[in-house]
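Private note to self, pasted from the team thread so I don't lose it. Backbone tokens:
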């Protein structure tokens, strides 16, 4: 039997609750498709600080290096907001992304028909919305040096820096994805003000010449933010640098009605990192009410992009669609008066459906992997 090793990093807040449901669904996939998943947990974020005094403990570093894929919950804890930077949960996440070299972050935003009325955006604007955000993840302001705060505290600096190869490699992921979708890449920048954005625009334009079958347009980030709510169906693949992508992806979540629904895949040369885009939500942590669908949809992305098991990924995605169409709702996506279920019940419903083989199989080529370096050797 094929065996995959998955490092599970539940992290903080609602992270452990939602990843538990992701694992449940992964085990159901294993039963249905005859695959063995070895799942082991390692601390990250505030959990890492508590366990080992480090938001990315050595034990976790070693484990993700050995894994075929990494499933992550969320990081962030109210108690550590003012901690020194090396002890912040977010520092652990950024170090993890850098360690894995996952430069391309894919955030699909698809409006599901049964949830159209959950968004504050008018339903007629939401018809056909299917955006893939491709966010550069290991460069830009998040990592640029110099950075820091002067000893007096009254001056601080961060550095926005990108090199041509960093832009080229993530642009290729966007174009490859567009080729298998509606053949439009919208590249976001602030080229009217920033030199880095001018380099971004020039480089994306040059890469675009390798893809004559894909249309390329460039938008300033302020206008892109507006169009994302006024005419979201106009986007296919949205290509952004790190910080712009962070901001625009939360905005895009408004279209689907809840941040709790959205998954992500972070890909590079080695093992991929798969995580819901929602945060640790400390206000609802431990209550069993969080929506696990973002984490479960991240498992689908893990299967599709991390392990290249498209049939298994399809089964999970179809199961999510089926339970939502049947009216299953966690608190965040329920209309007033609608019955609500908890994290675990939602996870069980989806897992049962995956196991029962009731969701059909539509196998397709794995979308963007061809833009990435060959998968790491642990995958056979
Ligand atoms: C995200 C998160 C992270 C980011 C934080 C937790 C560092 O907001 O994945 O979007 O800004 O990248
Ligand atoms: Mn974010």
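Design output:
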């Amino acid at each position: 039997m094929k065996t995959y090793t998955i490092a599970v990093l539940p992290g903080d807040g609602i992270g452990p609750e939602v990843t538990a449901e992701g694992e449940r669904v992964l085990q159901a996939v294993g039963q249905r498709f005859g695959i063995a998943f070895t799942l082991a947990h390692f601390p990250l974020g505030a959990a890492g600080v508590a366990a080992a005094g480090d938001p990315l403990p050595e034990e976790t570093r070693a484990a993700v290096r050995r894994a075929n894929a990494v499933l992550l919950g969320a990081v962030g804890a109210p108690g550590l907001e003012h901690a020194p930077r090396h002890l912040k949960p977010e520092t652990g996440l950024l170090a993890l992304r850098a360690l894995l070299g996952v430069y391309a972050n894919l955030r699909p935003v698809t409006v599901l028909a049964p949830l159209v009325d959950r968004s504050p955006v008018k339903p007629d604007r939401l018809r056909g919305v299917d955006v893939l955000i491709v966010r550069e993840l290991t460069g830009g302001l998040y990592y640029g040096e110099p950075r820091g705060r002067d000893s007096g505290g009254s001056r601080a600096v961060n550095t926005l820096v990108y090199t041509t190869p960093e832009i080229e490699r993530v642009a290729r992921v966007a174009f490859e994805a567009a080729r298998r979708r509606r053949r439009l890449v919208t590249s976001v920048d602030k080229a009217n003000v920033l030199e880095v954005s001018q380099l971004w625009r020039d480089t994306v334009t040059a890469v675009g010449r390798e893809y004559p079958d894909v249309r390329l347009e460039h938008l300033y980030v302020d206008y892109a933010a507006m169009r994302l709510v006024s005419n979201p169906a106009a986007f296919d693949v949205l290509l952004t640098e790190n910080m712009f992508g962070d901001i625009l992806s939360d905005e895009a979540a408004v279209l689907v009605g809840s941040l709790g629904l959205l998954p992500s895949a972070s890909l590079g040369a080695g093992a991929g990192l798969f995580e819901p885009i929602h945060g640790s939500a400390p206000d609802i942590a431990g209550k069993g009410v969080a929506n696990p669908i973002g984490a479960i949809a991240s498992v689908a992305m893990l299967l599709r992009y991390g392990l290249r098991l498209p049939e298994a990924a399809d089964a999970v995605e179809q199961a999510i669609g089926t339970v939502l169409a049947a009216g299953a709702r966690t608190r965040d996506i329920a209309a007033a008066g609608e019955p609500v279920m908890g994290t675990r019940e939602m996870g069980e419903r989806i897992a049962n459906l995956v196991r029962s083989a009731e969701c059909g199989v539509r196998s397709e080529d794995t979308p963007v992997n061809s833009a990435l370096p060959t998968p790491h050797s642990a995958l056979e």
